[in-house]
Structures are given as C-alpha cells and as structure tokens.
Amino acid sequence: MSAANLNHSRHLAIDELDRKIVGLAAYINAATYDLLVLIREFDERAGWLKWGLASCAEWLHWRCDLSMSAAREKVRVAHALKTLPDIAAAFAGGRLSYTKVRALTRVTRADNEADLLSFAIKTTAAHVDERCRELRCGTATSVADANRAHASRSLRVFRDPSRGTMTITVELPFETGALVEKALDRARDTAAAEAPELMDESWSARQADALISMAKAYLSGRSASSGSAENYQVMVHVDQSALANGQGRASLPIESVKRLCCDGELVAVVEDEQGEPLSIGRKSRAVPTAIRRALKARDRGCVFPGCGNTRFVDAHHVEHWSAGGETSLDNLVLLCSRHHRLVHEGGFRIERDYQNRWFFKRPDGRAVPSCGYRPEDTIDDDTGHDIGSLSATLNNPSAEGLAGAGRTAANA
Known about the structure:
Blueprint: H1 3-9, H2 14-44, H3 56-63, H4 68-80, H5 85-92, H6 98-104, H7 113-122, H8 125-137, H9 143-151, E1 154-160, E2 165-171, H10 174-194, H11 203-220, H12 240-245, H13 254-262, H14 289-299, E3 313-317, E4 332-336, H15 337-344, E5 349-352, E6 358-361, H16 387-393, H17 399-411
Antiparallel strand pairs: 1-2, 3-4, 5-6
C-alpha cells in the first residue's frame, strides 16, 4: 500500500477499517489454500529430490523460511485436504482460516465432515481447536498421546549467578499440570487473604510466591492452605459415549479420564443434544453452587465473542433479578470482569436470535459476530463486490496476482 493510501486509511471510519481487514484476511485464507495445493503437487512429484533434500517439509524449511514444525504441518494439511472436499472448498473461498483447517484435518472423516464444517464456520478458531482436541481425546487411539505426554514430563533448573536468579521450567501432562495450577491458586488466594497488601504485587510475582509457599508447606509437613476444596476442583468434560465405547468427546485422552475417575469425585451434568446443561430453575439472587457448576461446564469462560478469559469470570443475569429474572441456566452467562462491565455500564446488550440463542449487540445496535470470518463481512455494501474487488480497493500492488490465485483456489 502506498504512503498516500496508508495516510488515507487513517481517516477511514472504524467500521470501514474493520470490514477491509476482515475481507483481506479472508482473501489471504483463499491464497493460503492455493499455496497448499501447490505444496501437495510438489510433494507428490517429489520435487524436493531435485534439491537433494530428504522431504518436502525439509525443502519448505529451507526454501520458504518456515520452521520445521510449521513446514511439516503445511505438508500434512495439504495432503489431508485432498480427501476433504467440503472443507477444501470453504478454505478456498476464504470462509475458513488456516488455523481452523489445521485443527479440522486432524479429526475429520467423510462421515463427520459436514457437521464439523458447519460447526467451524459458526464459531471461533479457539472453539474449533477445543472441539477437535476433544474428539481426538475421545477415541481409544488417544492413549498414545497420553503416553507421549507422560513420557515427556520434565523439570529443568537453570541458575544465573550473575543475576542472582534461578529459572525453573516444568512440562507436565495436561491433567497433572491442571492439578499444579489449582494448588498454586489455593496457595496464592490464601496468602492474599492473610496479607491483603500482597494484592498490589504483579500476578506473576504472586504466582512465584505461591510456589514458594507450597514448597515451605511440604518441607514443614503441613498443608499449604485450608481453603475450601470446592473452589479448586479440576473439571474434566467427557461424553458418556466416550467412556462407554470410545466414540465421543473428551477434554483429556479418554484413558486419562478413566484413570482420574477411578479415585476422584464425580459431578454428573445432564446435557441436551446441543451440549447445554439442563436448568435447575431455582429463583435466587445468589447463584447456587449446583447452578454455578453447570454454568462453568457449559460456558467454560467468558462467552463474549473473541474473549478467552477463564479466570475472574462472573455469573451474569441476562434479565436482572431485580426485574424478575430467574437464577437459572437459561438466564445466566459467564462474563469476565471487563465484558461484565461493558454489558452493565458500557451500553452493550444481550438478546436472543430467531433460534433462541444469546448474541451481543454494540451500543449502536450492531450485532457482534460470534467469530471472525463470515462471507457477508467480505461484501462491499456499495458495489456488491466480493473480496476480489476489495483487494483492488486497497490498492495492493500484488492485488492482481492475488486475485488470480484466489480464483484459482476457489475453482480448484
């Protein structure tokens, strides 16, 4: 983009900048698909042998300045797309990001492609990655992943005498790492309750102090804290079908879930076909423990689009209890502190759509998209042109070439 055009873009309305950025991002997705098609053909024809290399990933690492891990993923995804026509078409049209496609190609088969594609288009990349990880964990083959994670556990200590510091790096399987995280939370919160002035310290400093507190407690033979265990439960999500026959979703490898269930407290949450926990329906200002558990199981964190906060989240009454709103799952959502304030004091609203699902509106009444890439966001309201004309609007020097690549991808 030229200096003149860049200066002009500084005077565009925020919504216009938003539209142009989203449109160009979708356009880059289409070009990325075209790149993967070329990589697949290059690998199938063993083009890397001409350069005396051992694999296509090695060639990409050298020729295109990719890390080896990124190069291997590019090659894997390129070949996987050959047998996933619907996902390939959506990717070629800019409707899916590479991040989503990379996750989808790990678990998608002919019998679940349509369902996973429909889910991916309507939600965020983070949710797609989580769903795909759960599907992978919900199969018996995930035991290899669990064994690999267990075998790679490690703790390293690096001493730096010149700075007078010690760096401790630890790698753990997910479920044991979550256990350590909860222990740190308890030690940190207990210390803050005993000495409120510690709240002025940074988060990372308080976490370090919590680790020291745990070490001292262990060496002295006493518990690091006496807080309520209810606040430090590690919640594992798993379909009953995954436990029964290895065909379902799980937030950990299914064998790891079974191991944890052998000697752990089980909280059963009954859900409908859409994964929504059934409402208890009790009317109260304070959210009862049972409803709060189900709310955390359903939302898992702040539900505001694009927010990934899982800490310091509040149970928000969509229809406030003072106006007759019930304290039930049907009237509650989790919001982080920032977005909770936006909904109450910032003019944002929560309403239901025609499918009776919650969605957010900005103060000007415009709906907040549930995820980043939508076909309608790439259409120019004035001309009706799609992302191809958008590139020309941006005066990108390489727009003509990219437009050709996008058309090639869409027709591949």
